[in-house]
């Protein structure tokens, strides 16, 4: 029997152990998509206890923020919401987390939590209800007494080279400026441009948001569709000037309607008047924005990320009480591969297709994405169009293996830009370790099965590339 999550965790062969310990493990982390708060990075937040950094909860302004992976796991164990995201004492919440985690056999959350305990707190004992008091004391002692157990200290401990936060076009990027001006901050922290609120003409709050977008470019209103496009591009250029390297679009599905700006303007005017829109009109408006921004991304050297096939906010009770991103989302089924192809082709035909990363939350789309990306590669950079890392519900051990196998079968795994955390927790960098172990184990098995030669120079290039070098090149770091 193997030891529980020891140094060779997941690594089944001698080749896998060599690739991980000698190459992957040492590489810096490029966390090009996450939801960390730049204000907390700048202010070097210190956490009072492990529950603050692990679970989070309600903020002073009434909003909620935390690790909704853990919230979802605890709800599945029948734990009362007051212990999950609510106001129960932190120690009681920690014990309840331990109670649920003990049941999470086979769930990546079990591995992630224990990797975080090992890497950041030196705790190698499994977390159970019985061990919870000891682990609580050890973790909190470090958080309170170790000068390096702060937001920046955790970033340093994880060997992070780049952090791409997620930011709204109307954001001032004040804290990004402060971080960039601070010589003591070694990791690069860049904003990522997320214009979803302007794109989602069919969702609540859109009209109010457009007024805010207008104000951000010094206008009383955005009277026409061209005004909207100009405002979005102006804010994108502002982001570029403040270190932006990527955009991020969180779409229900990728739309495509061959609309002109004039047609989209007619839709825009209807929406301003509060009139109902057809599905085609909604998609036409969205397509015009995506094409305009895609061309701007290409001109400015910004990567376009498209995330889709998430069925969001399914539990109306929890959504009404807590807002979005609180653990009540699911995988959606969409048939938008043809739309993606048309979108990329419309950009490609004029030579304006940006570097693009495609993520579907539905693993059934893996093969389709693997073949789509091959249609739009060019000589500007290896792997210009990427099949993004196994995302959200797919960043399990089997999910990551299947995404990488699909990419290897249909494209070039060696040009893959690798893992991201997509997380709100400063401890989530352990997920990169998890990914790298899975990567090295997969490659190690292929080598030991005689499916790839035991050529150390080639293997080193592939493993170090997928671990971080490819992302460093792709994002211009």
Describe the structure.
- The chain has helices at residues 14-22, 38-42, 50-54, 68-76, 81-84, 90-101, 108-121, 132-145, 151-157, 174-180, 196-199, 206-216, 225-241, 261-272, 279-300, 316-322, 337-348, 366-372, 397-410, 430-448, 456-474; strands at residues 29-31, 57-58, 64-65, 160-164, 188-190, 192-193, 246-247, 249-250, 304-308, 310-311, 330-331, 356-360, 385-387.
- It has 477 residues and is of the alpha/beta class.
- The strands form five sheets. It has a four-stranded parallel beta sheet with strand order 8-9-12-13, covered by helices on one side.
- Helix 7 (108-121) packs across helix 20 (430-448) and helix 14 (261-272) packs across helix 15.
- It is globular, with a radius of gyration of 23 Å.
Query: How much is the average pLDDT?
Result: 97
Low-confidence stretches: none
- Derived from helix and strand composition plus strand pairing, the structural class reads alpha/beta
Helices, by number, come to: 21
Beta strand count = 13
Radius of gyration, in Å, reads 23 Å
Largest sheet entry: 4 strands, parallel
Topology of helices and strands:
Elements (H helix, E strand, L loop, with lengths): L13 H9 L6 E3 L6 H5 L7 H5 L2 E2 L5 E2 L2 H9 L4 H4 L5 H12 L6 H14 L10 H14 L5 H7 L2 E5 L9 H7 L7 E3 L1 E2 L2 H4 L6 H11 L8 H17 L4 E2 L1 E2 L10 H12 L6 H22 L3 E5 L1 E2 L4 H7 L7 E2 L5 H12 L7 E5 L5 H7 L12 E3 L9 H14 L19 H19 L7 H19 L3
Helix pairs in contact: 1-20, 4-6, 7-20, 12-13, 13-15, 14-15, 18-19, 19-20
């Amino acid at each position: 029997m193997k030891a529980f999550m020891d140094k060779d965790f997941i690594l089944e062969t001698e080749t896998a152990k060599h690739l991980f310990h000698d190459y992957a493990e040492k590489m810096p982390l490029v966390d090009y998509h996450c939801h960390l708060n730049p204000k907390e990075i700048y202010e070097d937040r210190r956490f009072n206890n492990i529950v603050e950094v692990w679970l989070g909860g309600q903020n002073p302004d009434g909003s909620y923020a935390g690790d909704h992976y853990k919230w979802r796991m605890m709800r599945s164990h029948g734990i009362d919401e007051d212990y999950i995201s609510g106001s129960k004492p932190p120690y009681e919440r920690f014990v309840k987390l331990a109670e649920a985690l003990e049941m999470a056999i086979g769930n990546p959350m079990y591995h992630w939590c224990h990797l975080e305990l090992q890497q950041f707190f030196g705790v190698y004992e499994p977390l159970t209800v019985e061990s919870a008091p000891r682990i609580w004391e050890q973790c909190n002692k470090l958080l309170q007494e170790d000068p390096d157990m702060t937001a920046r200290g955790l970033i340093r401990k994880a060997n992070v080279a780049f952090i791409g936060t997620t930011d709204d076009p109307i954001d001032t990027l004040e804290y990004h400026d402060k971080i960039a001006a601070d010589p003591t901050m070694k990791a690069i922290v860049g904003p990522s441009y997320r214009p979803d609120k302007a794109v989602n003409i069919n969702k609540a709050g859109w009209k109010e948001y457009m007024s805010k977008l207008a104000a951000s470019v010094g206008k009383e209103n955005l009277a026409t569709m061209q005004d909207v496009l100009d405002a979005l591009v102006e804010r994108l250029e502002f982001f570029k000037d403040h270190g932006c390297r990527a955009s991020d679009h969180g779409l229900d599905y990728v739309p495509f309607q061959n609309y002109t700006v004039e047609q989209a303007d007619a839709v825009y005017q209807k929406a301003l008047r509060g009139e109902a829109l057809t599905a085609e009109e909604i998609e036409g408006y969205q397509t015009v924005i995506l094409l305009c921004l895609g061309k701007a991304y290409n001109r400015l050297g910004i990567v376009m990320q498209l995330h889709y096939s998430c069925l969001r906010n399914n539990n109306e009770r929890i959504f009404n009480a807590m807002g979005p991103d609180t653990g009540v989302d699911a995988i959606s089924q969409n048939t938008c591969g043809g739309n993606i192809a048309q979108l990329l082709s419309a950009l490609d035909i004029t030579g304006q297709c940006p570097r693009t990363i495609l993520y579907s939350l539905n693993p059934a789309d893996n093969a389709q994405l693997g073949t789509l990306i091959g249609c739009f590669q060019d000589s500007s950079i290896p792997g210009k169009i990427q099949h993004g890392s196994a995302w959200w519900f797919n960043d399990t051990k089997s999910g990551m293996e299947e995404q990488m196998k699909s990419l290897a079968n249909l494209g070039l795994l060696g040009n893959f830009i690798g893992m991201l955390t997509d997380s709100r927790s400063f401890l989530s960098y352990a997920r990169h370790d998890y990914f790298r172990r899975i990567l090295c184990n997969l490659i190690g098995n292929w080598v030991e099965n005689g499916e790839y030669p035991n050529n150390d120079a080639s293997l080193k290039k592939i493993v170090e590339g997928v671990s971080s070098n490819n992302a460093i090149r792709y994002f211009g770091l």
